[in-house]
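Wed. Picked up where I left off yesterday with GTP cyclohydrolase 1. The coffee machine is broken again, so keeping this brief.
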Amino acid sequence: MINKEEFQDEIGDNHISLSAKNPVRDDAFAISDDEKIEKIKKDVESILLTLGMDLTDDSLKGTPNRVAKMFVKEIFGGLNPERKPKASTFDNNYKYGEMLVEKNIIVYSTCEHHLLPIIGRAHVAYISNGSVIGLSKMNRIVEYYSKRPQVQERLTMQIVQELQQALGTEDVACVIDAKHLCVNSRGISDIESSTVTSEFGGKFKDSVTRREFLDYIKLETKF
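Structure written out below (tokens, as returned):
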């Protein structure tokens, strides 16, 4: 019989997502970013001391503070809803009715199971239903949802759902191809493998439209 700790390890080692939403507590923003940095700074210091590092060394003196600021303001900054990009849309006055594809959007995220990087590319597309969105906003949406402890499946879904809401259409698709350093640098240590996830909405569920999208991004994976 598997115990609770073994069950939790199995979920993490197999990168299983149990929720389509990031598991954030209700009191996640009860304290300020500066307060979080101070608390995390002490925690990082404790970890390094436990590992036996000499924090009086000039190279390590500022590490706890650097890591704390990086966590709060950079790699996990997407947890804060105040940083959510405004997805401004515009009327499709030029009546462009074909697929719009923004490909090779760089993804830098962090695996929530081991807090190691996820690095890859997102390919996003939509078909206008009367509204269009600025190209840079698509990149910013990808960046915002990437900057939090994540699983790739959830990230893919969140990007599509955010664009569907902003554009008022179900006709949105996203494919992410990424390397997980929790697979590449530890555990099985397979440096070549990558993970591909996809989410297709509306017209992209049709095999012809989906194939057109995949041809644009030159992804040979079969769905």
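Quick read: The chain has a mean pLDDT of 90.
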